[in-house]
Amino acid sequence: MKLSLPLQGYFDLLKHSPGEKKFVCINCGRPVSGLYRQISSTVLKIIDCDKCKKPADKYIEFEVLIILIDLILLSKPAYRHILYNSDCKNLWKIGCILILLEAYCFWTDAFRGITSITYRSHLTDPFLSEKGFYLSTVHFVAGFLLLYGFIYLFTRVLHRSVPKLTGNGKTYPYMLLHGVILASIGKFLFIPIIIWRENSTETGMAIHIVLVLMYFVISLVQIHSVVSDCTRSRSGVIVILAFIVKAYFLTRVSGLLQQFV
What we know:
Layout: E1 12-13, E2 23-24, E3 31-32, E4 36-38, E5 44-46, H1 64-72, H2 76-85, E6 86-87, H3 91-107, H4 126-158, H5 172-183, H6 191-196, H7 202-228, H8 232-257
Antiparallel strand pairs: 1-6, 2-3, 4-5
Keywords: Endoplasmic reticulum, Lipid metabolism, Lipid transport, Membrane, Transmembrane, Transmembrane helix, Transport
Function: Mediator of sterol homeostasis involved in sterol uptake, trafficking and distribution into membranes.
GO cellular component, one term: endoplasmic reticulum membrane
């Protein structure tokens, strides 16, 4: 099979020494020693997994667009490919962009249909108005950290078999952090709210926001199931509990931040 490795420059394959089981089969999640074998300078053969007997990672011959489509469709193999077999160095940048996006929506009252919290000052001073954006950013950074922390805590309590190291040799907290960021990519769907906010009703925007948040929760459940190697039902319980407790503590944080408006 002739492969051109089209992911080069997007999600580069991780580099490991020969014989190390630092890759993961995208089908069953078990460690594998490699993803392909080089037949010649231009021909590569995908290695089959010893456990499930399927190609260890079919995505190494797929275009990026196909991988992104599978990510949107919440495909577990696609999640495993990105998290375990790819070197996505810019994932943390995506997380920062998403936090700024949510903070901007919050600051411009785009979320007013589902929450009464606001950091927008009624004064006309542009510096005070800008301060509200920074407070909104702190709000969502705190929310992200609380969500990640409670998911990790509830996973340790309700799913005690979580390994210290994942299939590719990285620590579980590190992979869970990447998983939460990857699940947040669906929040890019908040962009239409910014574009068409003036031509939408509050009810329509509220429905849009709720649908995006539901997609985010489903994505997070799917990714948690992949990273923690547990059933979707248990992942659903852990994620929903984390969201409930996070909302409670974030309300307290918001009350403190509103004192600075």
